[in-house]
């Protein structure tokens, strides 16, 4: 009798539970996802929300998927806006397809100032395919993103500021696949034959590397005795944002052609990398010599990917001496120097070494590295590189 009653309760209770947990229809990306307490939207630069299901008045489930079919790098970007319809708290579930939870969610009420959630505030499933967290519902919209939204308008403002505050010249290098401008910064007299070349943001989610790029370039272009001496002998060529289309679209990795730009140096099949190809040809034809190359990225830790000693640079050992000098000054920023063989992978580091036999590195900043620590370290890296290059007898 008790066993039968238990079965009847289980059947009735289970039905009630299923009814209570039933979710609404899937709302496609690009359409507002309306729950009783909030609306979740993705109509802004850098957004990626995927399809949305309303689980309850305060709970939505978002399906985060990449722009391209696998294989694709596990950099599962998300960014959306919550417009409150009531006070209290919203519960967000992220369900990942072809990826795993990686980035600590960051919140902003204005899209400019961001605050990461505590790691303990995010519940991640054992297989990493699902993450849950709560977001306070305030009087106005709340942006939620994998990383800070550093979109093309932010770069435009930074570019203009740098050009106005320094001797750098800002010009359009060309256009992306979607017709967006890609800019270059030049500093130092054109008669300076020796060039430091830096580039950034080939991969859209790699925002921590952008903070380092900004601080590094600002130090090179600062009104200091060291920077002035450096610019009297060297020329800086910089491409701050090579993949604006991917950034605006909220891509995990690719440009609008479905190509990883940092696997396209050499093939140069994409409009963005073709601009780099043409720029290098222009510099070569003008008799210039690139002496050092850095490409700014992000990964799970602070690391420089460089050449091992089997691949001699001109001058020999310069890259490793630079990092060792900087390490003696840097505080609160641990990093490693991964010395690898030069491979056939068509990334920027390999291509620039193979073409010029110069020191080249992928400058990687940890996803969740403290932003001020990353900027402070970048300033020291820039100062030590200027000092070291000024010592060379080119």
Give a description of the structure.
- The structure is a single chain.
- The chain has an eight-stranded mixed beta sheet with strand order 12-13-15-14-16-19-17-18, sandwiched between helices. Strands 1-2-5-11-7-8 form a six-stranded antiparallel beta sheet, with no helix packed on it. The chain has a five-stranded mixed beta sheet with strand order 3-4-6-10-9, with no helix packed on it.
- 42% of the residues are buried.
- A hairpin with a 3-residue loop joins strand 1 (33-34) and strand 2 (38-41).
- It has helices at 2-21, 152-165, 207-220, 225-233, 244-249, 271-285, 318-329, 348-356, 371-390; strands spanning 33-34, 38-41, 52-56, 59-64, 79-84, 88-96, 106-108, 115-116, 123-124, 130-137, 142-145, 169-175, 181-187, 194-200, 234-239, 289-299, 303-307, 336-340, 360-366.
- By secondary structure, it is an alpha+beta fold.
- It contains nine helices and 19 strands.
- The radius of gyration is 24 Å and the shape is elongated.
- The protein is 30% helix and 27% strand.
- Mean pLDDT is 94; it is low at 1-22.
Distance, first to last CA: 94 Å
Number of strands: 19
Query: What is the H/E string?
Result: HEEEEEEEEEEEHEEEHHEHHEEHEHEH
Rounded average pLDDT: 94
Summarize this structure as a short list of keywords or feature phrases.
394 residues; eight-stranded mixed sheet; 9 helices; 19 strands
Write a concise synopsis of the structure shown.
This protein is α+β, with helices and mostly antiparallel strands.
